[in-house]
Structure prediction request, 286 residues.
Amino acid sequence: MLAHIKRQIKHLINIIPLPLWLKCLLVRNDIRFLDYLYFPSIDFIIDYYNSDQKIRVNPLYPIEREMITGSYDPHSTSVISKFLKIGGCGVDVGANVGALTLIMAKQVSSTGKVIAFEPGPPIFERLKFNIELNPSLKAVISYKCIGVSNNNGELHWNEDMNNRGNGGLLENSGVPVIVETLDDMLRHESRVIDFIKIDVEGMELEVIKGATEILKKNKPVIYFETLQPFVELRGVDVFKEIENILYPLQFVFFDYSKERGLTRVDLLDLPTNTLAIHKHKIKNYI
Prediction:
């Protein structure tokens, strides 16, 4: 019955041809309008993302559709504001169209730096376009169309056609892309790396394997995706493998929320996204 009522409401709302700007305004004020309003799959630019940033969106892409609200992933946004300091240096591995890259750039301000990596060529072009829409942020963002792994070489990028914009490097065929380790790409970075966000559709293990020198040297906060389906996808307990790398380096796993702060977690109760913090830095965030 409820589903029927929702369909009727959606139908009634879309009988009236609302202009695009009004649809965006409605969604900004109430995210539920995203479920009721029809948005054509066309590119358009909004100028209120993260309060004052410009960004190109196309509702065909789920990430960009959410960005019509003016924000993206409130939890990750709160993590960035807590653990990436003003004037700091953050790395965005799997930047996609820049939803969090831009938030990181605003957080570090003009004295900081953000380094973004996105391997998917068509998605990288959207990332590049969004960065160039924001000249004041462009000055602090370094971005490169490249994949990140535990070895340098070539892998194949494939877009998930059921979740447009998301792509992975785990298939044996697809669009050939260059991959390198974070240790190699950041070897000559003069700034201390404070924060690394990793969202690479199941390849978090490889990214961390290829960053051990950075982790030893800089002891950054690591914010990485820990979805249980990745274990089935890879056929190995990738999070146990990550633990085997990070624990000897004295990193501890946490969940974080604004309400509860940091909560220690183990492999049996990992959240959707997990924080790994070096034990000597934990006190800085409590």
Observations:
- The longest helix spans residues 2-15.
- The mean pLDDT is 93.
- The chain has two domains: 2-67, 74-285.
